[in-house]
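Private note to self, pasted from the team thread so I don't lose it. Backbone tokens:
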């Protein structure tokens, strides 16, 4: 036990003697700084040439400063003494008026290292905005001066003129196509609306509704084709289209309307009329689209 304590005393004494032999020096190269302004701290040390000494690098905690870079100078040695030095460029964003720093050098031993620190050096933070004392008196001005905002009429007029020119050019160059596209869109909307109203009523038509539904179909064909279907008889419509199937279904409806024997089974005939209305509509759309190209 006594040997262990004696060994520890020798080890501590050896470390202490080593630390006393190495006394690094360090100080700031300026007296004051501003927040975020780079400052320089110089570090130097003389030590026996047989020892291995290293300086802190970017991994070291330089608080309250932040590391920017390190400029290291070549070692100067004679037969017994070596001299190393470096300049650290740092900055700080702390707001304390007085900031201090000390840096170590590390002596590398076989299985450990010993740190030797410089004395702590101080740098002062410059006040960029002076503190306003309570002794200053403020002058109050309560008068209010209203200022009118000037509207940029020339700019407004220029914008309106440009817009007007663009509209005129668009109408001149694309006016016909725009009108045809608008017409196609309106016809599609009318045909969709017709099918929404006509299909539910024509699915199971009552005998007393046949004449009204047939007239509604003729009026729609007149709208999409610009031909007077509402004034044409079934025979005249047949002469116009030369479609025997269409004529047969129209005759079936005529017999239900004008004869004493009412026919309630006309759903098939109305399905054909709906399909024929789709045919007329699609032909009209193709015709308009060919003119719009």
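Design output:
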């Amino acid at each position: 036990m006594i040997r262990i304590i004696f060994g520890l005393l020798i080890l501590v004494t050896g470390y202490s003697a080593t630390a006393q032999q190495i006394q690094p020096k360090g100080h700031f190269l300026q007296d004051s700084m501003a927040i975020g302004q780079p400052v320089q701290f110089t570090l130097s040390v003389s030590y026996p040439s047989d020892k291995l000494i290293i300086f802190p690098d970017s991994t070291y905690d330089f608080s309250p400063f932040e590391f920017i870079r390190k400029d290291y100078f070549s070692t100067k040695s004679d037969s017994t003494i070596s001299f190393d030095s470096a300049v650290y460029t740092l900055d700080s964003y702390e707001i304390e008026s007085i900031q201090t720093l000390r840096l170590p050098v590390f002596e590398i031993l076989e299985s450990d290292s010993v740190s030797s620190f410089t004395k702590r050096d101080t740098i002062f933070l410059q006040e960029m905005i002076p503190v306003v004392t309570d002794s200053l008196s403020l002058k109050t001005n309560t008068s209010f001066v209203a200022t009118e905002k000037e509207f940029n009429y020339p700019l407004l007029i220029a914008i309106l003129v440009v817009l007007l020119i663009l509209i005129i050019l668009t109408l001149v160059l694309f006016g016909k196509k725009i009108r045809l596209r608008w017409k196609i869109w309106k016809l599609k909307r009318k045909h969709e609306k017709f099918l929404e109203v006509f299909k539910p009523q024509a699915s199971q038509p009552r005998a007393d509704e046949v004449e009204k539904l047939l007239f509604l179909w003729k009026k729609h064909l007149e709208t999409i084709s610009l031909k007077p279907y509402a004034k044409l008889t079934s025979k005249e419509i047949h002469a116009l289209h030369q479609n025997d199937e269409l004529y047969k279904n129209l005759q079936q409806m005529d017999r239900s309307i004008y004869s004493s024997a009412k026919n309630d089974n006309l759903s098939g005939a109305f399905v054909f009329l709906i399909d024929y209305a789709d045919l007329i509509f699609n032909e009209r759309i193709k015709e308009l689209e060919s003119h719009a190209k």
